Amino acid sequence: MSEHQISLTVDGDRETVTVEGRTLLVHALRDQLGVTAPKVGCESSKCGACTVELDGDIVKSCTILAVQADGATIRTAASHDDVLSVVQEQFHEEHGLQCGYCTPGMVLTVADLLRENPDPTDDDIRRSLKGNICRCTGYTNIIRAVQSAATELEAVSGSPPSAAVTEGED
Ligand code: FES
Ligand code: FES
Fold first, then answer.
1. What percent of the chain has a predicted confidence (pLDDT) above 90?
2. Quick one: DSSP state of residue 24?
3. Rounded Cα–Cα distance for residues 63 and 52 (Å)
4. What distance in angstroms lies between residue 161's CA and the mean position of ligand 1's atoms?
5. Cα(40) to centroid of ligand 2, in Å?
6. For residues 57 and 109, is the Cβ–Cβ distance under 8 A?
7. Helix (H, G, I), strand (E, B), or coil: what is residue 52?
8. pLDDT confidence of residue 156
9. Contacts of 134 (CB under 8 A, 6+ apart)
10. How far is it, in rounded angstroms, from Cα 74 to Cα 55?
């Protein structure tokens, strides 16, 4: 089995790790580097539990070989960032998490959405999260958390306020 030494910058820390050619990025992060924020769910790009930010793009780390990420800068839900922190706080405040397994992928995806679109509609939020599955089905509270985060961020940045959350949808 071919082995490769790769370098990654993960949440600000420069790391070097030896991986097999077939090693998925999510396994290199979790099993070899001990970075446990990205979770392993489906391993087939459906659930979004393994979501990370790779060189500025939101990706599912089970869809990428670790060798393909050589030299990349990766951020996870454990990184420190003002937008991400507000999103995490509002997931907590609005009860947007239950078991929390999906949450790291959710909050990274949502933080990316709010950087691109500080005033998302409910449909914008649903579209952005369509690749992230919550097995606890807390979607109403998740959407409420995103709108609350948008409002919180607007108070800081002066962006327009968010639209209201539609009650009773799941
Ligand atoms: S584990 Fe990667 S999308 Fe489900
Ligand atoms: S909170 Fe349990 S999977 Fe989403």
1. 88
2. B
3. 11
4. 32
5. 13
6. no
7. strand
8. 84
9. 98, 102, 106, 142
10. 6
Distances from the Cα of 63 to the Cα of 52, 69, 80, 110, 128, angstroms: 11, 11, 25, 20, 18
Check: pTM over 0.85? Answer yes or no.
yes
- Say which ligand is closest to the CA of 131: 1
Which of 84, 149, 156 is closest to 165 using CA atoms? 149
The span from the CA of 45 to the CA of 43, in Å, is 6
Q: How far apart are CA 168 and CA 79, in angstroms?
A: 33
H/E run at residue 6: strand 3-10
> What amino acid occupies position 81?
D
In the chain, % of residues over pLDDT 70: 93
Planar angle of CA 49, 50, 53, nearest 5 degrees: 120
Q: Ligand 2 atom 2: the closest Cα is on which residue?
A: 99
Nearest protein Cα to ligand 2, atom 4 = 134
Six-digit token string for 59: 């990706």
**Distance (Å) from CA 61 to ligand 2 centroid:** 18
Do residues 145 and 89 lie in contact, with contact meaning Cβ atoms separated by under 8 Å? Answer: no
Distance CA 51, CA 42 (A): 12
Q: Dihedral through CA 97, CA 79, CA 56, CA 161, nearest 10?
A: 50
Ligand 1 centre and the CA of 65: distance in Å? Answer: 13
